[in-house]
Amino acid sequence: MSLSETATRTGETLSRAQEQVKDLGKTAVDKLDEARVGTAEALESAASSVRTKGRSGAKKIESMSEQAAETLDSTAQYMRAQDVGTMLGNLKLAVGRNPGAYLLFAAGVGFLAGAAIRRGNSREHA
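Above: the chain sequence. Below: its structure as tokens.
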């Protein structure tokens, strides 16, 4: 085989390789473009879901906040209307009617107080 034939074959092989690389590049760009569009659609769907759930959550939070505010107002009115002796007497009656619930409540308050104290101590040592 002559040098010129070898050069011609090499040129043809190189040309085919360049076409294959070009085709692979185009395929890769097409796949990336499809993925980009799909990702954008998924992000838009997620954004819509967040908005919908956020509105729903905001309504629930608003309702809960209103209930908490009403309970606080009611408690404030009770405290203004009663003296300490009457309040202690009412507390004794309530505990006597349902001691289990108050025992659980007291345990919960104790647990939360202990956790707060431990957290405060760990911050002091840090």
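The chain has two domains: 1-81, 83-126.
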